Q: What sequence folds into this?
């Protein structure tokens, strides 16, 4: 296993609960989650807002320190590893962010953004190698001198992907990376990600609320709710035979682009709680 | 039957380029019309033009927007203000930025009822209570006392739906009203909009980029690219048998969980180049 989480839980201080003295109450945002990824494998982390999918993704990168359980990278326990132990691993575990607008420094050129990531990890940051990376993600070499605001949304997301894969990682967490894009751009970005995964043998944790995209890209899927895994399995199997009502409801809630009489009336109309 | 909204040859431009090109579309009473397209297609610009809230940089250069026979573009501002919000209402995309964070839901929901419909404070609150009931919110008395940040995204969107319907408008413009919501909540909110629209026989102009949403709630659809109408007609017919190559390409680019073996095809660059040439972009 490349990355393995064993029964991890994550607690954060409950900011909604004021205390005068002593410790804040804890809020458990991940509860007893186990998941593992092999080299070259793609797992979709699916759930609604607040389900814990992003927290799980960040925990897998050890951006958060689990409160309980164990996190292993190539068998090495990094659950409570310090900065020195993590430093050599950081290059190998990368993240692609949802919103490239806010995750790319607006004052730096694309060339600068990529060069910084490469230099920090002791890699060749020369213009030719940067041009080669840009070319691989489908951007012209002229992008080196551009600033993020001069690119389209799809192009900016390509820069986010370039920054992650330039470091030749083994494991990448992609957090809702196509959710702000038009369908055509989404298709291009998914195609790019798929190609890079196959070419580099990346293990990929693909966080998404969109089950159709997950069905397309991921061989395995993990369905989350309230910080727990409610269902997991081969994507084709989960879609064909969902085992929980929650998964069935999620699938049944996706509108298909063909007129489906009665689809809107299928489930009882719930009253929203205040 | 005469259309409720009849847009004729509408053109608009920014300082640098045209953004609506000769757009014509009409919507009959009680009908749901989708405006579909990718970013930059002009769908939101059309919605804003009908609502009279075009940004300062955008100028209408030609055409008419008839609402029940009156040209909104030729109407004096005072007359226009009598219609907007009362006869023509909006369900906005982002429920967080569309509600005032510093005011209670009840105060915001009763503004229109008191200032536009002339209800007393007491009558307006009674009406607001029944509106929240209509949009299926539990314990509406408590929700009236809450601030926007205390509600979930789905709840906030329900409040805005209640607000849009509060003055019994003839037309509602829904601008991507479910884009920010989780799919399960999206389905409930779509159903709610559809139910309220049917009950009040409201004409609905529904702006969206999601062909799945169009299929499930819209009677007719208008496909736009670069500010130009490419295709228009009954939703079922267009989705089954799209005439425009662009509509076909959009469908081929949309992932479907029921057709996983189908590879996703981005809209071909050659098609985009051809469209841009035809349109004159």
A:
């Amino acid at each position: 296993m490349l990355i393995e989480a064993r029964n991890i839980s994550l607690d954060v201080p409950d900011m909604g609960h004021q205390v005068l003295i002593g410790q804040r109450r804890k809020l458990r945002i991940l509860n007893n989650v186990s998941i593992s990824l092999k080299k070259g494998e793609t797992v979709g982390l699916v759930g609604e807002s607040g389900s814990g999918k992003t927290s799980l993704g960040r925990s897998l990168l050890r951006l958060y320190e689990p409160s309980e359980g164990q996190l292993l990278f190539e068998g090495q326990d990094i659950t409570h590893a310090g900065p020195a132990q993590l430093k050599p691993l950081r290059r190998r575990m990368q993240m692609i962010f949802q919103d490239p607008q806010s995750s790319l420094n607006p004052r730096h050129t694309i060339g600068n953004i990529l060069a910084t990531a490469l230099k920090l990890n002791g890699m060749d940051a020369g213009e030719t190698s940067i041009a080669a990376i840009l070319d691989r993600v489908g951007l012209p070499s002229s992008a080196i001198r551009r600033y993020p605001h001069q690119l389209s949304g799809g192009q900016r997301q390509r820069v986010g992907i370039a920054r992650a894969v330039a470091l030749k990682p083994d494991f990448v967490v992609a957090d809702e990376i196509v959710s702000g894009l038009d369908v055509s751009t989404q298709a291009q970005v998914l195609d790019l990600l798929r190609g890079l995964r196959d070419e580099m043998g990346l293990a990929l944790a693909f966080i998404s609320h969109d089950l159709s995209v997950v069905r397309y890209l991921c061989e395995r899927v993990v369905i989350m709710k309230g910080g727990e895994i409610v269902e997991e399995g081969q994507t084709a199997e989960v879609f064909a035979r969902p085992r929980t009502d929650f998964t069935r409801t999620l699938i049944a809630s996706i509108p298909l682009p063909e007129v489906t009489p009665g689809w809107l009336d299928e489930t009882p109309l719930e009253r929203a709680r205040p | 039957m005469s259309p409720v909204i009849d847009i004729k040859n509408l053109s608009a431009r920014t300082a640098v380029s045209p953004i609506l090109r000769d757009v014509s579309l009409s919507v009959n009473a009680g009908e749901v019309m989708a405006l579909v397209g990718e970013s930059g297609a002009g769908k939101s610009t059309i919605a804003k033009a009908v609502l009279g809230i075009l940004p300062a940089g955008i100028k209408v250069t030609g055409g008419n927007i008839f609402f029940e026979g009156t040209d909104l573009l030729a109407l004096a501002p005072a007359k226009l203000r009598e219609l907007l919000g009362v006869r023509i209402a909006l369900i906005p995309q982002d429920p967080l930025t569309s509600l005032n964070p510093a005011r209670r839901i009840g105060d915001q929901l009763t503004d229109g009822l008191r200032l536009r419909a002339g209800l007393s404070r007491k009558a307006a609150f009674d009406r607001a209570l029944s509106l929240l009931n209509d949009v299926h919110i539990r314990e509406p008395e408590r929700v009236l006392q809450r601030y926007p940040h205390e509600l979930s995204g789905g709840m906030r969107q329900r409040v805005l739906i209640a607000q849009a319907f509060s003055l019994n408008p003839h037309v509602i413009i829904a601008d991507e009203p479910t884009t920010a919501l989780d799919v399960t909540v999206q389905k409930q909110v779509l159903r709610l909009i559809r139910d309220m629209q049917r009950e009040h026989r409201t004409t609905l102009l529904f702006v969206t980029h999601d062909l799945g949403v169009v299929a499930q709630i819209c009677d007719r659809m208008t496909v736009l690219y670069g500010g130009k109408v490419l295709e228009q007609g009954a939703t079922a017919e267009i989705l089954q048998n799209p005439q425009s190559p662009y509509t076909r390409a959009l469908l081929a680019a949309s992932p479907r969980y029921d057709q996983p073996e189908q590879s996703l095809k981005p809209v071909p660059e050659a098609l985009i180049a051809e469209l841009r040439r035809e349109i004159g972009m």
Q: What stands out?
A: Residues 183-200 of chain A form the longest helix (18 residues). The CA atoms of residues 31 and 177 of chain A lie 25 Å apart. Chain A touches chain B through 43 residues (CB under 8 Å). Residues 101-168 of chain A form one domain.
